[in-house]
Fold this protein.
Amino acid sequence: MIPELLVYLLKVNGVLLLLLGVYYALLRRLTFHQLNRAYLLGALGFSVLYPWLDVSALLARPAALDNQLSVLLPNWPGSGSVAPVVPAEEGVNYRFWLLAVYWVGAGLMTLRLLLQAASLAGVHRASRPAQVAGVACRQVAADINPFSFWQTIYLNPAQHAPAELPAIVLHEQVHVRQWHTLDVLLSHVQRIFGWFSPGAWLLLRAVQENLEFITDEAVLQTKQLDAKTYQYSLLQLSTLASGPALVTPFSFITLKNRIRMMNAQRSARAQAARYLLVLPLALGLLSLSAPEAASAALTASDVSTPTGPDVEKEAPISALPPPRWPTS
């Protein structure tokens, strides 16, 4: 028998993978980046809460009905008869080993996240406060790509031409003002508990990519620089070493997708109707939980024994009179 914790996690990551399939198939290429951010966070929250949604109150039989059924139909499943319990044969404790493997994986993922946090802390200790383009930042001496974490921007001004610094700082300011680090941390935590599922890894990648789409759009909307100049500055940044692994990675693949999105035509407002498709999907998932809740409700009622003055007690077999055989 699978442990209840693993059953819960399988449900969470199964629903998350299904919702991410909808995202990659229908929503990822839309230019509604803020809506996509809300969708990804909503998918994470719904998948976590879905196994806890209790609809058994709508499916449970009233106690009075159980008593009536027990009188009229003694052999009805809710009549109080309890099936004998057959003891399980002793053997390999699969529950223990399944949980052990899971927690080892979760522990390794936690250790990985802590090492990434330690690397980021080392960068912070080696940096010093500075003013870049009129914005308070942390100046680092290492040759790394500019990045932000929580409410702090890290960069090495000596690596960039003075004309590039305003765009770089503006880019990181968007990350800071919109609290993008929170989305990334939530996705990292989900990956720790769902390390065995591709959905947890895809969620982190989708969140990081969409946050960059949001930031690029916000920078271009300021009109401080044109799209070609901004994209050229991004190409220049791609030659630098990546920042700590805990922050959004900067790679050629992500840069290629960002440039493609910046050059894409704005999605028509009518395309926003695609987000409504998630409503019947959510209702369908809830309806699938109904049979399970109904089964749990029926099982709970089956163990109840009818009581009351109108219910006659069955006489034990030993108290019945002996049979009378016909005589010749």
